[in-house]
Amino acid sequence: MTSKKWFILILLLLTMGFFFFLFLQGKDIKKIESLRDHRLTKYEYLKFVVYEDIVRYLRVHDEESYFQAKNEVKFSANLKRSLFGDEYNAAKFPGVSQVSLIDAQYTLDESEGIVFYYHLNVKVKDGVKPLSFMVFYEGDMITNLIAF
Amino acid sequence: MITRRWLLFYPLLGVLFLSGCGFTVNVAELKREEIMRENALVESTLSSYYTNKEIAEEKKDALLRYALYGVKSDQLFSSSFSDDGSEEALASEKDPYAIVYDKYFTALGATSLREIIVMNFEEKVVYINALWDKEGLVWLDKKVYPT
Questions:
Q1: Out of A50, A56, A99, B90, which could bridge A69 as a Cys pair, Cβ 3.0 to 4.6 Å?
Q2: Which residues pair with B114 in a beta bridge?
Q3: Beta-bridge partner residues of B143
Q4: pLDDT band at A29 (very low <50, low <70, confident <90, very high)
Q5: Nearest to B35 among A32, A104, A132 (CB)
Q6: B101 touching chain A per CB within 8 A
Q7: From the first residue on, what is the mean pLDDT of each consecutive set of 10 residues in chain B (147 residues)?
Q8: Which of B125-129's residues contact partners 24+ apart within 8 Å by CB, and which partners?
Q9: What pTM does this model have?
Q10: From the CA of B138, how many Å to the nearest CA of chain A?
């Protein structure tokens, strides 16, 4: 065999070896992933999902954002009726232009669903103010909201 | 055309392939270390949660006496308690109240525990926001809203 053919053969063998080892590493990594502790995964994920809905509600400032938020937020029917009403009313909404998340936590006791706590800084007409929420989440939707 | 200079290429190629195959950088090992680190964080978060919750429940009465009536108890506070005038009394011991919610909060990596108590008095609602560590109360905030 010429040296050029040897070169190609060796290159081919090395490439096959490389992909074979990648395949073996992939199998190892799958096995290692199965060792991950998922006890807090659900809470950590939902913490941000629920936060997004809270921000959608806080940032309602006109009819367009009202209808968009009303369609998108996963609030229970009662909560939606109580917070959004049947039509846009500026007095019902805080009119927040910016929201910064300072802290987000959750309960591990699910006797009343998962309860999330958020501490926010919100920008309203007269400046930046702190705002805290307890948000009750049960059956894939937010069922209650307490602001303080 | 293959010349002797190309022969230098083989060792370089060999090193690149060995890296990809994990003999110089083992990706699986790095992944294992990452997962072990994250698992340790989950374990320590849960351990802190349960330990601090036990302390908070033991000292619940002392917390309420301090938060509502300004009565201090030495055993209530952690050594890192920050006193910012939270001892002001909100109610008299004769005022009846009902605890509406009493919840404990944590998050991944938290070493302290947050407790929020919502209480209904006759003419006001009181929110108590307390932070606990394994020694006791670290921080307290209270908000009162008339009903």
A1: A56
A2: B105, B131
A3: B127
A4: confident
A5: A32
A6: yes
A7: 62 67 70 94 97 96 94 90 77 91 96 96 94 95 92
A8: B126/B68, B126/B90, B126/B91, B126/B97, B127/A148, B128/B63, B128/B64, B128/B67, B129/A132
A9: 0.84
A10: 17
